[in-house]
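can u pls check wat happens w/ uracil
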Amino acid sequence: MNNEKITILDHPLLKHKISMLRDKNTGTNEFRKIVSEIAMLMGYEAFRDLPTENVTIETPIETTEAPVLAGRKMAVVPILRAGLGMVDGILDLVPTAKVGHIGLYRDEETHEPHEYYCKLPTPISERTIVVTDPMLATGGSASAAINFIKQHGGKNIKFLCIIAAPEGLERLAKDHPDIQIYVAQLDRELNENAYICPGLGDAGDRIFGTK
Ligand code: PRP
Ligand code: URA
């Protein structure tokens, strides 16, 4: 694994919020709100390396040179459905970001990802691309989504997930050693149905209140 490119976040606020997500008694409304808050906290950490440039600003006291986010624009690309839950938290931080979508679902038997939708802002090659999905289980969906983005010319890619299984993290880092991966919580393992343990269940169903 390319550890330099992997960041496992460690913060009491994240831990607290993830514990709330894990609780099966947390309802849809609260679950959705917490996912968004976690995405914002993750973005704060993941965007540390965004370049800045100085502009001239008049404060009420004097004229000064002050840093603002520079040149490179951002695209947030949620993996549908569950990744959608993280978009608003990122947009709260960077409201000028464009939003693309990649639709993938996992076959319930084989656990292989199937694409049903892909629409990305163009040109994508100059943008910092922030791929969101709360769950990294086998890693199949994230790896396929990043393949699509690269096929469309995407280069500078950050993947943000709330909970990862060791198996998925290893696979994603192996398939895409060039991307930066941010994980808020590394869980124990996958079960026989490729669900993350202890995990939080089906993130899409819990965000959208389905099933
Ligand atoms: C979930 C999750 C990831 C994927 C992770 O989506 O949001 O996209 O599974 O599993 P993997 O790492 O083994 O590929 P799901 O396919 O259930 O679709 P949904 O978001 O529409 O519920
Ligand atoms: N997808 C989910 O939503 N949860 C898991 O635990 C695994 C895949």
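The first strand starts at residue 6 and ends at 8.
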